[in-house]
Amino acid sequence: MDEDDGKIQRDVLVGSMQPMGIIYNVQVMTGDIRGAGTNSKIHMVMHGSKGLRNSGKIFLEGGAFERALIDIFNVEICELISPLSRVTIGHDNGAVGAGWYCEKVVIYCPFTGIEQTFPCGMWLDEDEGDGLIERELYEMVSLRQKKHKKYPWSLWIWTSDIKGAGTDAQVFLQIYGEKGKSDEIKLENNSDNFEQGQIDKFMIEMPDIGRLLKLRIWHEKRNPFAGWHLAKVTLFKTLTMDKYSFECGRWLDINEDDNEIVRELPAKGTLIDEPLPLIKYLVTICTGNVSGSGTDARVFLNVIGDMGDTGERLMFMSKNNHDEFLIESVFLGQVCRVRVGHDGRGGGCGWYLDKVLVREEGQPESSAIDYHIAIKTGSVNGASSDSRVFVKLYGEKGDTDKVILAVSDNDLRNYFETARTDIFTLDTYDIGKASLFYLTDKSGSDTGVQISVPVHGMQYMFPSHRWLCKDEADGKVEVEIYPSEVLEIEKLINYEITVVTGDMRSAGTNANVFCQIYGDERKTEILALKSRSNNFERGTTEIFKIEALEVGKIYKIRIFHDGKGIGDGWFLEMVDIRRLTMAMVQIEVEIIEELQEVVETFTFPCNRWLARDEEDGEIVVELLTEASEELEMNSYEVYVYTGTMWGAGTDAKVYITIYGEIGDTGERWLRKSNHLNKFEKGQEDVFSLTAVDLGVLKKLRIRHDNSQASPGWFLDRVEIVDTKDDTTYFFPCKRWLAVDEDDGQLARELVPVDEAFMKKGDEDEDDSEATLGLEQKGGGSAGWFLDWVEIDAQSVGQKLRFPCGRWLDKGEDDGAIVRDLFPNPLQTEFYTPFVPYEIKTFTSDVFGAGTDADVFVVLYGRDGVCTQQKSLCVNKRERRMYFERGAEDMFIVELEDVGDVIEKIRIGHDNRGVNPGWHLDRVEIRRLLRKGKGSETAIFPCERWLAKSEDDGETMRELQPSDIITEKLSRDGSLKVTEVEVEDALESIAYVIIIGVDHTQTERLWLDLLDRRKGFQAGSLESFEAHGSDVGEIKKVELGHDGATPEDCWLVDELAVAVPTKGVKYIFACKCWLAKDRGDGLTARVFNVLDAEAIAISQKTIYELTVVTGDVQNAGTDTKIFMSVFGANGSMEEILLQKNEDRFERGQEDTFNMEIDDIAPLKKIRLRIDGSGSRPDWFLDKVLMRNLNTEEVSVFTYEEWLSRTCGPKKTMICEMPAVVDEEVMVELTTYIIQVKTSDVSGKFQNLPGSFKTLHKQRQREAGGVALVHLKFL
């Protein structure tokens, strides 16, 4: 009776792990007559419906049972027997004055909500009445009441087993379900609750609130000894055995964790598919800007959403020393409203509240965007203003409030001074396209306003050029300005960057902090994280709104500071980046998804110092996203070799940026070397850099700041060791970085050389090939462990890896010494295929013409395409064999495909060896034609020395072709050889570039003349047809030539560009020189379409034409084929389908594009042949025409011969109706032809042949009618 709930009797269910009783509320009323009370033990038995079940004898302990008193008991049994049929009540008659007068018994079952009254009004006394001390009581049904049902729940609370975890505070809780919430429940007990490592058990009653969602638990004491560490809470519904768990594991203490004494816990259990998330809501309370608006009272706030509320929270711990508060709560759904108030205490408790802003922490405050307003004050006398300037923007979606321009972005102290531009940022909701600008000033003059909206990619110009002054001009101080020009600028998006500074001693910094974001598409510029507040203090969280480029999916960031200020060391805990993006979102429980705007969050944990005197001394760190699995951090050892020449060292600060296939390191200061005095003559300095893995390194950029007394530096080379895979990259330089040496540059970009992947042998020995993936078994045995084999197939553009990883040894593994290997598709690398070139060099027959140097060659095609530099000999032995006096040497090399025309070559040598000088006569380069139909040889004459001691001292020459020899194999097996001089053919070539919106443009469209004839003669008009990518609406056109020779001069009179697919033609009046030595020396000019005359022309449509030749004997043809197309809106002229050597062969499909007038829908086509050529007959299967705009396919089927001699029709012309989606576009039509013949004898003799036949068939019937079936024409 002195512990727990004081009960000395309990019902226990077999196998029960938790209390499962049903509580009945029992009220026993003693009568108001003399001697009615008793000291006996009272017992009771409750009988269920029909008396089949009962509670057993229950002793009502602890009751007073005094005259006119009501004793209340909570009786717990394992059976649900409500409603009751009767009650048995009595006593043991075991005390002095045992007699008892019972007035009535009232029993309430919360589970059924039924309250029953059982009247008695009789003595239970051996000396009174009938002498009975136990009576059967029956319900007075008229007094039965139906109340709200309440269900019994077993509540267990675990206090954590850590030091100081217990509390003496009063604990409360409230439970939320799908159908509502419980009342606030005060947890009381007779024992000492909530002690360290203790489990406290309670029975509570709640109405039906459906499936549980969350629980809020708190205590009321805010003193230093009220702290409580709660482990978890469980709720068990005793009737349905539904069990819920609420994990906590946190302090409820004003001195621990986040200093909160309220916790909300999401429900977990078998009935919960996915627990609701815990959300931190950032609440900003804005007090009005009126006199006496503040308050000293305690403010309470309750945030209410469609999935619950936060309960009343005391706004006690403000965030960042502003009126911002964090409320941690289980997800509320859509926030609907807030309830805010105060306790009315304090001297100045009155409070003027402006507004309350609620948002999830890290989410944008609203859909606001930034408008950057630049106002230029005029340069006239007295144009400046000291007045307050207001602006208002009007747009297609609404307008802003009137806003005062108070704080500028360019940190000027006095605003609106004469001839100065002030820049302000207006943060407001999106008003769409700006259409009006409203400016208010009391005195001053401005010349104009420029408003930039990077999020829209738009810039608006609002010209003013007027006074805003009561004493000037029209006296107006308010003006409405409309935009005169709207420009497109680079489009940016909003990023919200949250930076958390650690909560440890000296964790904050006064330095300037910067950040750079990397995505899978691009990277941002370096972003300064700054505001007007004192940022990056210990334990604070700062949120910065940044406008930057869209980078795609973010995979890393680089964050650093400049080390300036006192106490620049900084402990960074984490960084969060949030942005709005478009994603597919599932609509409720349906499978349907739609594209919606969602917030994408990237978390970058750090937990390290950025300080010169902490950890590794670095003030820059790269961070990966929390969910990153593909990438990892890597270390790079950087070896910097300073040259050995006089004055090669430097005392300047050296910076390096390393670029790989997966991003770059950003610029890093090479600060900590293995030598105290860095970058001295002939010295090797070693540095270590940590960054996100870059993959294969592509290049590096190295520079110095030109500081100190002797900043000039001669860099020999840089070597970088990737410690992840132990790969070394070699970056040769051998140049000065100095303003007074070489080309005066302080920065160099270096690329790795091929030898970086090979282990170089001795310079004096022959070069040896690398052996890849081989491991030789020791002991002189023939056994061999093969790791892998790699084959680089340059002709198909593939590098194939064949993994093995097994022994080839009779005594190891399975004893096999031969294995079949198969390529791993995941390790196959694809690149641009190489093509074979046959290169012949002709060394002149003059004294000392031969060379032992390493000869290399580079081929150049059109539009700047070129191959890599390729050595013709692979080792010293070959260099000694080739390039002898009078020799002709041939090499087969595979190089990048430079196209059909080789415009020039560069050939030279490295000037090494005993006799490096070389007299080259000519070079011949031969390559196969497309589809192997022959070959083409270009001849490049030289007849000059490549020697330091001869001629002009050059060891490298650029050669242009003089002749092109083409060899083709005829059908009769003979070789047809043609030779063309190319002096005129390869003079300057003109080109056009079409430029559209967003700077999209075509490649150079070369204006090639047919048969290599010379064009652009004085007074000539040349027409060309060029095909390029669609750039949308044309904005500009660039015309130029490649300026192959200095003498190329071209005076352009007029340029016309027609776009048949858009039905427009632009005519540009040029009248300017494109020449290096005429006019302004430019060989290219850009023309704006705004300056052109636009003429509408008939619109063209591009069709993809596929001609299918039948697969029968002798189906192919060499004859000329002509085609006409007929549509509902006209027809096209007959065109010749070019044979192009290999078209229209047996069983072949030939596809090419054609541009015709827009005559769709197509009705029919007509094909004819002229019967020329050695094979005049052709078996046509079908023709397909696909409209590239609408993707509609028209099929024209023939499946017959076009021939004078073959097939049943013996015709050389055919017409075919179009079939679109199995619908024939031309139907057979019946024509009724009436021919009236005169009754004069013999008149029919002069009729055309067809009518003669008709009338002969109709036996010359006067006025006869004939029915014939014709295709519609």
Short note summarizing the structure:
The protein is 1% helix and 47% strand. The chain contains 2 helices and 86 strands.
Structural class: mainly beta
User: CA-to-CA gap between the ends?
Assistant: 112 Å
Shape: elongated
Strand order of the largest sheet: 60-57-62-63-65-66
Q: What portion of the residues fall into strands of 2 or more residues?
A: over 45%
- The tally of beta strands, per DSSP, is 86
Largest sheet: 6 strands, antiparallel
Please, could you describe this protein's structure?
- The chain is built from two helices and 86 strands.
- The protein starts with 21 loop residues before the first strand and ends with a strand.
- The model is unreliable at 13-19, 755-781 and 1242-1273 (pLDDT under 50).
- Strands 60-57-62-63-65-66 form a six-stranded antiparallel sheet, with no helix packed on it. It has a five-stranded antiparallel sheet with strand order 4-1-6-7-9, with no helix packed on it. Strands 11, 12, 13, 15 and 18 form a five-stranded antiparallel sheet that branches.
- The protein is mostly beta strands and 1273 residues long.
- The longest helix is centred in the C-terminal third of the chain and has 9 residues, at 1249-1257.
- The chain is 1% helix and 47% strand.
- Residues 22-138, 151-266, 279-391, 493-624, 634-751, 835-960, 971-1088, 1101-1216 form the PLAT domain.
- This is PLAT domain-containing protein.
- InterPro entries: Inner_ear_hair_cell_LOXHD, PLAT/LH2_dom, PLAT/LH2_dom_sf.
